[in-house]
Amino acid sequence: MDHQVIILIFAGAVLSVSFAQTRQFHFVNTPLNWRDAQSVCRQNYTDLASIEDTADVDAAIVALSNYTGKAWIGLRDVMVNSWRWSLSDSSFYGDGESTFRNWYPGEPNNLNGQQLCVRFYGSVNGLWDDDDCSVALPFVCYQGKLPFRFD
């Protein structure tokens, strides 16, 4: 009986961890503009990285490993101050994901009216700033799955 209880507890722990981990971040060290980076991520993973909270910021920093530059993530301004994630499936996102932002102080500033895409600073605590989408940068993709839901 004791062995059955231990196995049941272990199985429950494994299941709860697997349901909590809905995505994995991948750094692609090939400079591309934002749109081409999005295309590569969609072909090989799920999409450009969406970042829901500080745990995702930390996971993205780990994915960048020793890279200290800037990298595209999946946030883009679709209208004036109307930031949206690349993946449009709203059922994918957690509670805070559509509103979580990690801007560098003074950002976004839309310098010269051309900065509509967001880059991630792996070396500066994962802070973000806006930049011209045509700039070629490495990028962060994620491999994700829809979170398990009891509906």
TrEMBL record:
Residues 1-20 form the signal peptide. Pfam families: Lectin_C. The keyword Disulfide bond applies. InterPro entries: C-type_lectin-like, C-type_lectin-like/link_sf, C-type_lectin_CS, CTDL_fold. Residues 20-142 form the C-type lectin domain. Keywords: Disulfide bond, Signal. The keyword Ribonucleoprotein does not apply. SMART domains: CLECT (SM00034). It comes from the Eukaryota. This is C-type lectin domain-containing protein. It comes from Oryzias sinensis (Chinese medaka). The lineage of its organism: Eukaryota, Metazoa, Chordata, Craniata, Vertebrata.
